[in-house]
Amino acid sequence: MDNGIDRYSPATLYQQGGAWTSSASYPRAQMAYRHQYLTGVRSGTTGIVAFDGSLSTSVPRHGASAVISPGLSTVCSRDAAQGTAGAAGFIDGCAKDARVSEVAAAVFTSGPVTVPTMASGPVSLHLNTTMDATDGYFTATLNDVARNRQSTVVASGQLTASLRAIDESRSTRSAGGDYTKPVPLTALDDRRPVVPGQPTVLDIAFTPTDFVLQPGHRLRVDVFASNFPKGMMIPALLIESQLRPQTIAIDPRAPSYLNLPTNRPLT
Questions:
Q1: Distance (Å, rounded) from C-alpha 231 to C-alpha 137?
Q2: The whole model's pTM is what?
Q3: Assuming Cys at both sites, which of 181, 201, 215, 256 could form a disulfide with 122, CB separation 3.0 to 4.6 Å?
Q4: pLDDT attached to residue 138
Q5: Which residues share a beta bridge with 52?
């Protein structure tokens, strides 16, 4: 049957923020991994949030602490909409705009891009943290923020802090040696309980993504201490966490950063 399938490109993709596209490969060619550093500089682009910071191509100049606490704001989120198949009427709006769930998040936002800026492939988040208990839970989203400040999730990831050990045989790194796809070891025998108050480094993998930021749009990273109803720690580890606040350390000497494959540097 001559239905034209032989004339398709090797990869047919829906580019979030854009349209259906054809590409010779996925990830798209001409992507380079670049750091977007989490800084304590207030972006002024959010409403009520746990912490308003910025994304920058430069290492932060000053230290800061972004404190997040477990909560239920993620009941209104894209993850919740997917998990319930949109069963609740209000969920559809939550899937399209993350600003309700962001009230419990540490939010880091870039400046607006001036030309279409693409990202394609695996994405990871390197976090320097401290916790007040022997375990904790982090979930993060990568968002496209429009001119009207609507915040649309394009990728997400999550990690239990004590299960932070990485399976190097299954993980990948960019040319600079930083993780692009950190795959954690999830057996309880591989647990590394957190030492309360001591620095704890986490590498969180996002779902691989493909999106374009249109001119005037911004990139955002949201970091939460919970992700109910999509994800929860198993009861024994949840008890260890004591649902205590968790801290993201903004430290020029040990910066936290997003490792993002893009076709050009962000501002």
A1: 10
A2: 0.93
A3: 181
A4: 97
A5: 107
